[in-house]
Amino acid sequence: MHLLDTDTLRYLFAQHPKVVNKLKAATQVDIVGTTVVSKIEALRGRFDFALKAATVEELIKAYGMLAETEANLENLYIAPFDQNAADHFRRLQKSHRRIGRADLLIACICLAQKAIVVTRNVKDFRVVPNLRIENWLD
User: Among residues 22, 74, 92, 136, which one has the fewest Cβ atoms lying within 10 Å of its Cβ?
Assistant: First the structure.
């Protein structure tokens, strides 16, 4: 299983050729999805844009982007933060302060699912032991 980090999701939604090609290849042999944390981050960005819109035109654009993001997410498997992920989180949260909370949650979901995290943010994720990482952009 491959789980896309939020940064890779953005490139996928923008139809970046490298990410689209890797996705096509990966889906032929594996499940590809994202985590509930990345889903929240993607939607939160869209909600924030809508709430901060200063003009009607910005509101229309923001709600269109929100609807597009929701539609894109509907086509992906969303890996949950379950008890197994929580167990990894409890074990790692005190010893891995150099990684942000959201990234650590994503890493723990990937560990729980025995999945590969697909991210451009290799530097932060590589501090997590036994986490498999791929970068589909560089």
Answer: 74
In one letter, which amino acid is 57?
E
Q: Is the dihedral of CA 13, 88, 121, 46 positive or negative?
A: positive
Three-state secondary structure call for residue 129: coil
Q: Which amino acid is present at 133?
A: I
Mind listing the pLDDT tens digit for each residue in 48-100? 999 999 999 999 999 998 999 999 899 899 999 999 999 999 999 878 667 88
Say what the pTM is.
Answer: 0.88
Q: Which amino acid is at 87?
A: D
Right CATH number for 2-41+77-134 from 2.30.30.60, 3.40.50.1010, 2.30.42.10, 3.30.420.10? 3.40.50.1010
**Strand-pair partners of 116:** 2, 132
What residue has token string 């990482």?
133
> Measured at the alpha carbon of residue 70, what is the angle toward residues 66 and 71, in degrees to the nearest 5?
115
